[in-house]
Amino acid sequence: MNLTEFNNLCKEERHLRGRLSTLIRMIKKREDKVEKLYEPIKKLKDEIGELKSEMIGLKSKIKNQEFSFPIFRIEEYTNSDRDYFRAVWYIKSVKKQKYLGSVEKLLPEVKSKFKDEFLELETSNLKFQERYEKQMELVTEYFLPTLQLDYWKKEYEDFKKS
């Protein structure tokens, strides 16, 4: 629409079209601001992706060199009427374990990381035992990177001592 056609419109229609144009510009400006705010988040997500792919590469390199992580298992146990998580693994047939914290404290952290998966579990028709096993898989997935890093850190410290 050119200026002459715009000036031929009634005052009310010019006002409405002008307001519409202003709103479109305001929305665009705010969308640009939101996009600018997302840039650091996108950058961090990209960095996380790069670190994860590097970690996957290291894991495969470790497997190829016949180093291996022990198999970590997360258990839930009760002590004094409270439930806790602990990690369990075996080294040379010796059981090792590490206290992780109370279920009450840690489960919300795990749920916040795996929101979609927990929502799917809660709405699924799985039996209680199956749902519990899936939940424990997510808990294990949450703690596994930390347990592996702690394990290798200890292995390295033991290596430095010898």
List the helices and strands and how they pair.
Elements: H1 3-8, H2 11-64, E1 73-79, E2 82-91, E3 94-102, H3 103-113, H4 115-123, H5 128-161
Antiparallel strand pairs: 1-2, 2-3
Helix pairs in contact: 4-5
In short:
70% of the residues lie in helices and 16% in strands. It has 162 residues and is α+β, with helices and mostly antiparallel strands.
Give a verbal description of the structure.
The chain folds into two domains: 3-64; 73-161, no CATH class. It has 162 residues and is of the alpha+beta class. The protein contains five helices and three strands. A hairpin with a 2-residue loop joins strand 1 (73-79) and strand 2. It is elongated and about 90 Å long. The chain has a three-stranded antiparallel β-sheet with strand order 1-2-3. Helices cover 70% and strands 16% of the residues. Helix 4 (115-123) runs antiparallel to helix 5 (128-161).
Any idea what the shape is?
elongated
Largest sheet: 3 strands, antiparallel
Span between termini:
82 Å
User: Can you list the strand order of the major beta sheet?
Assistant: 1-2-3
The rounded Rg comes to: 27 Å
